[in-house]
Amino acid sequence: MNEVTVRAYGPLNDFLPAHRRRVSWPHLVDDHPSVKDLIERFGIPHPEIDLILVNGVSVSFDYIVQSGDRIAAFPRFMMFDIGRLTRVRPRPLEPIRFVADVHLGKLARHLRLAGLDTAYRADADDAALADLAVREGRILLTRDVGLLMRRSVTHGYFVRTTRAHGQLVEVLRRYGPLDLQPFSRCLRCNARLRQVPKSAVDGVLLPRTRRHYEQFEMCTGCGRVYWKGSHWKRLKAAVDAACGEAERPEG
């Protein structure tokens, strides 16, 4: 057997048991794994990793672990540009678009509310989610570590927070600054909205809505009609609050 030493830094410790957080630990290896596979054995999904140093040298996920290696895994650096150093970071996706797993329906709605292109299907299985992320160049948002560990997934993030507002703040902070266009997407199907004359939607309006509102938008996908009703100010306040929280430093 070969012995190596492993350490994870920053938020990568969220995936480890308490006794392995923020410390180095020895590990016996009886095969010849890649450094990606070895690190994932401890529960750390590879899309969360931005840099791996082995004996102080930056390596790729394909590096084969050797006896005596000292392995250090780092998360995304918020304050430093390590683009010329890292050998594991994939090419950034442009524009930024998301796909949310089946447990993040409320987050998907909040992201759409903020104007972010977010795919979501309540009946999608893991294979379909991973395939969509790769095929359409989307960042996979999930609460499922196993899904994030799928080899085909290159861009993904494990959402730590459990409440939808906090999840929105977390994603905005992680991927910001973003060019947000709130209320530009359909909350039901994610397609863009377009302004329409009142006469175009008059037939589907309730009498009270018809009396009190003049400006309307329609989804270009499913045809749902939107207007700035009594709920609009509350939703706008929620988006503004999330954006403000995301801009403030954590802690």
Structural features, described:
Strand 6, helix 2 (105-113) and strand 7 (118-119) form a beta-alpha-beta unit. The chain has eight helices and twelve strands. It has three domains: 2-74, Ubiquitin-like (UB roll); 98-184 and 232-247; 193-226, no CATH class. The radius of gyration is 22 Å and the shape is elongated. Helix 2 (105-113) packs across helix 5 and helix 5 crosses helix 8. The strands form three sheets. The protein has a five-stranded mixed β-sheet, with no helix packed on it. A four-stranded parallel β-sheet has the order 7-6-8-9, sandwiched between helices. Strands 10-11-12 form a three-stranded antiparallel β-sheet. With 251 residues, the protein is an alpha/beta fold.
Specify the oligomeric state. Answer: single chain
Structurally, the number of domains stands at 3
Shape: elongated
Biggest sheet character = 5 strands, mixed
Radius of gyration: 22 Å
Which structural class best describes the helix and strand composition?
A: alpha/beta
End-to-end distance? 42 Å
Question: Spans with pLDDT under 50 lasting ≥5 residues?
Answer: none
| Fraction in beta strands | 15-25%
Strand order of the largest sheet: 2-1-5-3-4
The DSSP helix count reads 8
* Amount of helix: 25-40%
What is the strand tally?
12
Can you write the helix and strand succession as a string?
EEHEEEEHEHEHEHEHHEEH
Mean pLDDT: 93
